[in-house]
Amino acid sequence: MVKEELTQLRAVRSRTLAMIQDLSQEQLDYVPQPDQWSVEEQVDHLILAERVLRGDMAILIARAKAGQTPYLYRSFAEFNARPACIPQGVLPWLEVPLTVFSGVIPASVREYVVRNVPFPAQAPDVMLPRRGRMKAELCEELGAMLCETETLFAVNPSLDYDNMRHQHPLFGIQTVPQLMRTLWLHEQAHQEQITSILASPQFPKAA
């Protein structure tokens, strides 16, 4: 199962790299609206997202190898992703009811939300992009992130990834393969946002 998700992530990552390979730095830095991200920020967000989720998967793997229960709970205090309509200050009050609610929502519905983003969402603080990153750095890190994720599983080929559990109040309980699926679905969603930016009438023309 993990191998299938890795294969899909490779294909999605190749498309992301292809989408930005011919863009200039000016085009990468173009901000369509004051409250929107540039292509550069979209890509940096993807890099940070993979780093965070791979770190959590590495924790689950380490716990399984140590004979501990491979379970990890991330609270809103640690990972404050949320619908944009929910103020930051009310998250602690919603943690328990949302945890219960997400536990009965089918995985297919949660994956639909990740892939299609049917409502404005606020990225968690740990995944907020850094402005001013150079194209060469972004391309290098996109490749490096994928290699590090592949290596994590290559050196741990025989573990029961379906028995590892990651839980968040908003995203529910996910196995490691489901976390991997979330990674590439999330990247596809941002590819659509990048496509929208490239199609903007005000998008800088190629030199």
Written overview of the protein:
- By secondary structure, this protein is mainly alpha-helical.
- It has one domain (2-198): dinb family like domain (Four Helix Bundle (Hemerythrin (Met), subunit A), Up-down Bundle), CATH 1.20.120.450.
- 57% of the residues lie in helices and 7% in strands.
- It has helices at 2-20, 25-29, 39-65, 91-104, 107-116, 135-154, 176-198; strands at 71-73, 82-83, 121-122, 165-168, 172-174.
- Strands 1-4-5 form a three-stranded mixed sheet. The chain has a two-stranded antiparallel ribbon with strand order 2-3.
- The longest helix has 27 residues, at 39-65.
- It is globular.
- The model has no long low-confidence stretch (mean pLDDT 95).
Provide the descriptors you would attach to this structure in a database record.
5 strands; single chain; Four Helix Bundle (Hemerythrin (Met), subunit A); globular; 207 residues; 7 helices; two-stranded antiparallel sheet; mainly alpha; 3-stranded mixed beta sheet
How are the SSEs placed, and which strands pair?
Elements: H1 2-20, H2 25-29, H3 39-65, E1 71-73, E2 82-83, H4 91-104, H5 107-116, E3 121-122, H6 135-154, E4 165-168, E5 172-174, H7 176-198
Helix pairs in contact: 1-6, 1-7, 3-6, 3-7, 5-7
TL;DR?
The chain is mainly alpha-helical. The chain is 57% helix and 7% strand. It has helices at 2-20, 25-29, 39-65, 91-104, 107-116, 135-154, 176-198, and strands at 71-73, 82-83, 121-122, 165-168, 172-174.
